[in-house]
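Supplementary Methods, section 5.1.

A reviewer requested that the exact input to the structure prediction be made available. We therefore reproduce it here, unchanged from the version used in the analyses.
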Amino acid sequence: MITDSRTRWLAFAVLSLGSFMIVLDTTIVNVALPSIRTDLGFTEASLAWVVNAYMLFFGGFLLLGGRLGDLYGRRKLFVAGIGIFTAASFAAGISSSQPILVAARAAQGLGGAVVSAAGLSLMMSLFTEPAERAKAMGVVGFISAGGGSVGVLLGGILTSVFGWHAVFMVNIPVGIAVYALSLRLLPATRPFASGTRLDVAGAVTVTASLMLAVYAIVNGNESGWTSGQTVGLLAAAVALLAAFFVIESRVSDPLVPLTLLRRRNLAIANVMGVLWAAAMFAWFFLSALYLQVVLRYDPLQVGLAFLPGNVIMAIFSVGISAKLVMRFGLKAPLGTGLALAGLGLALLVRAPIDGNYVVDVLPSMILLGLGAGIAFNPMIIVAMTDVEPERSGLASGLVNTSFMMGGALGLAVLASIAAARTGDSLASGAAQIAALTDGYHAAFAIGAAFAIIAAVLGFKLLRSQSPAEQQEPAIGELATAAD
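The structure derived from this sequence is encoded token-by-token as follows.
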């Protein structure tokens, strides 16, 4: 266990840098897609796989990555994930053909899944004192919620100045530094259950189920949500998930003990995570489209438009959110933050065709930054402190899977809603820009509803804990996690 405070925070900084690199990569590529398409000759349909390959492997391996960290050592898995991600980034950066780039993106997703799951459980094990843990989780919240917006700004700058290869090459020096510093600063955690066997059947079925579900979701808009392909893939995913639950109820060392899913706060936090991620994707992707397509902002201007929200999010995530958690407990900050984010999305429903940034966009950015900055910290703590230390890697995998699946499903559903509303508006004689704006408005409204529903769940269903008690059940147990 790390007892020196300075060393502990340095180790946390290394973990945060690794996590930030992973989160950044989910969006930094988006700005470079037009250049990639031109240079490598992608079609509109095949270009989607530059994003989809990453999402497919990232979403599919989160749960398994978390459990492997519990069984074989989290530092070992974290370092391995950083190595895979960095090597894959190099392969993507030097890609000269479509298959190589798509394969490299898939490998990035695999490495990112391992880093995300192992990294979060390592972060939790570093801090046993409630105030320090709340502060640390605030940083995690900012990384998770704000990294995507930063990716748009950085992607615009790198693509404009150096070309699309730079959005991948920028990961290499960062990855090498994180790899080296991890070996020096991170505690060499021993496996929690060295005699436990990996549940291979459970791992295969749940990973295949998640990958099929992500594949069906990310291709739903193109293939059609009622097409045989989409329905068949989703049915196969459900069947594999059912098989997974049967396996988990019968094996001696299950990948996911079913009793874990009955932990009230953990279960509710994962449901809230799905809704929250769907709302956040509505904010990030659809408001970026509104700014680019309707208001005609260039990529750099889009990134700058998100800057006020990111700054507010950073201020509240890193400093103020922790104090709110210590003062009021988990329920009030979590519910209030989600409600503020929902209000921010609701304001975008009235954003006009000739919108003014200060009047029509900035208030929403402020509310969304404020809501995300307040809510993300308590949401992570709620999920992670409801489990024993030997299962914290699995819990982090569950949380990350909820965010990933919520984001993928939310984006697909909201994009479909926007497209359907746009089609209806065009059919009624509306101009192209007006029809697109109508579509975005409909999606913003549904995204706002997701955030509000998550807020209600937090207020009504989470188990109440006083500020002093909110992390006590796990503190004594987690004190040994970094030994």
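Residues 466-483 have pLDDT under 50 and may be disordered. These observations are discussed further in the main text.
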